[in-house]
Q: What sequence folds into this?
């Protein structure tokens, strides 16, 4: 099978969740034994084509340009970021990550309009839709009118650490990973952190995102301002170091299509607090404390429980490691390949 994929978002160091998904699924598909006879066309839109030539290219993979009105000949095209080029010469699969741009006030109006148009067009034209969670699958069905028979939930994987972290290095740190913005609920987390014992610190890893003003004002106004660390964007190495050092991971996001940092923290042996809404209960299972993200006191109570209860921390660490081990990129690639094969058999 000759498969073309939109690899545009897999490039660069400061990758979003979509970028991490693109990078990992591309590499994992290329490594699948059952796809050993396939050829892979990694396609890049013009603004990223030059950068693509500095990227590692596995065996049986070739680079191709991708334009709105031209795409390479292939048996199948897979759009990895809920959009498809206008000109397609093959059946299409498209991955939908989330629809919070449509459902919430988390993006600029012009971006929201363009996103919804592209999403509706992709949903109408794709023969199969992959979603990263059952939550997103239901949104695609309800909001975009896609029949459930065309939708295939395929969860992300998580890159597991090479060895178990040295728990003796743990520090009194509450870690949160994600853009500083309204959707990530940073302001409420900052205010909830104020109730933590004085020796604890809050470390926020992420760049400033859309509507970050409330969060930044909450940080500046916090009576614990000196205990709040903003790292900005962090490399994989620096992020891994914070996961090794943290004693609590807090991710009270208002809306997620998946929530990859939850699994990263679990894999690193950090007990997790996350939200009881969107995809997060589906991802966390019974391995996290779930809170209503709109209630600051609930977030604060969960933080204090984990700070005070060593047995609870140990229980969640063990559950989290088991839970995260269920999510692998190999499994995601296998399930994606199965979607390709079902579509190929229909031809």
A:
């Amino acid at each position: 099978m000759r498969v073309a994929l939109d690899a545009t978002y897999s490039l660069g160091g400061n990758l979003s969740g979509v970028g991490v998904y693109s990078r990992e699924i591309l590499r994992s598909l290329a490594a699948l034994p059952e796809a050993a006879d396939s050829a892979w066309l990694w396609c890049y839109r013009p603004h990223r084509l030059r950068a693509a030539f500095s990227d590692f290219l596995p065996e049986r993979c070739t680079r191709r340009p991708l334009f709105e009105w031209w795409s390479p000949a292939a048996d199948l095209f897979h759009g990895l970021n809920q959009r498809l080029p206008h000109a397609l010469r093959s059946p299409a699969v498209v991955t939908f990550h989330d629809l919070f741009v449509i459902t919430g006030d988390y993006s600029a109006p012009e971006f929201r309009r363009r996103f919804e148009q592209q999403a509706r067009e992709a949903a109408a034209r794709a023969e199969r839709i992959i979603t990263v969670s059952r939550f997103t699958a239901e949104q695609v069905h309800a909001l975009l009118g896609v029949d459930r028979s065309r939708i295939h939930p395929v969860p992300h994987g998580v890159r597991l650490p090479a060895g178990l972290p040295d728990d003796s290095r743990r520090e009194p740190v509450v870690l949160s990973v994600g853009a500083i913005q309204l959707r990530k609920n940073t302001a409420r987390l900052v205010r909830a952190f104020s109730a933590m014992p004085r020796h604890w610190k809050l470390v926020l890893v992420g760049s400033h995102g859309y509507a970050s003003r409330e969060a930044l004002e909450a940080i500046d106004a916090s009576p614990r301002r000196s205990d709040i660390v903003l790292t900005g964007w962090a490399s994989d190495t620096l992020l891994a170091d914070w996961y090794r050092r943290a004693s609590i991971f807090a991710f009270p996001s208002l809306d997620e299509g998946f929530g990859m940092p939850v699994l990263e923290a679990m894999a690193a042996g950090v007990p997790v607090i996350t939200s009881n809404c969107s995809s997060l209960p589906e991802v966390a299972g019974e391995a996290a404390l779930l809170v209503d993200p709109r209630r600051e006191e609930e977030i604060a109570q969960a933080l204090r429980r984990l700070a005070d209860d060593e047995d609870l921390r140990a229980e969640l660490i063990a559950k989290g490691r088991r839970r995260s081990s269920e999510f692998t990129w190999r499994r995601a690639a296998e399930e994606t390949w199965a979607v390709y094969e079902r579509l190929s058999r229909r031809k």
